[in-house]
Amino acid sequence: MSKLKNKETDRLFEALMRLETVDEFYEFFEDLCTVKEIKDMSQRLQVATLLRQGKSYQKVSEITSVSSATISRVKRCLDYGTGGYGKVLDRMEEK
């Protein structure tokens, strides 16, 4: 079971599932998060995408300007995490 699982987090995720368009996500996330938090999350998804494409840490860092620590963390999640990145990236590739 996730360390995050609780009623408040369930409510957040249920709220996200009710958003229907990219514009609605922008509106919600701009209210919910700082610009830096949103940029950090989008960079992590980009890092995960590049790593799945077989890019080296150095190449990923050159493309994204993300630290090697962040790249390493994303790589650990891809290899040993819950599968969330993989599930999302697989579904994005299907489109």
Quaternary structure classification: single chain
Low-confidence runs of at least 5 consecutive residues: none
Q: CATH homologous superfamily of the largest domain - what is it?
A: TrpR-like
* The CATH topology of the largest domain: Trp Operon Repressor, Chain A
What percentage of amino acids are in beta strands?
under 5%
Short account of what is shown:
This protein has 95 residues and is mostly helical. The protein has helices spanning 7-17, 22-32, 35-52, 57-64, 68-80, 84-94.
Which characteristics define this entry?
2 domains; 76% helix; 6 helices; mainly alpha; single chain; Trp Operon Repressor, Chain A; 95 residues
Structural write-up:
- The chain is mainly α and 95 residues long.
Fold topology:
Elements: H1 7-17, H2 22-32, H3 35-52, H4 57-64, H5 68-80, H6 84-94
Helix pairs in contact: 3-4, 3-5
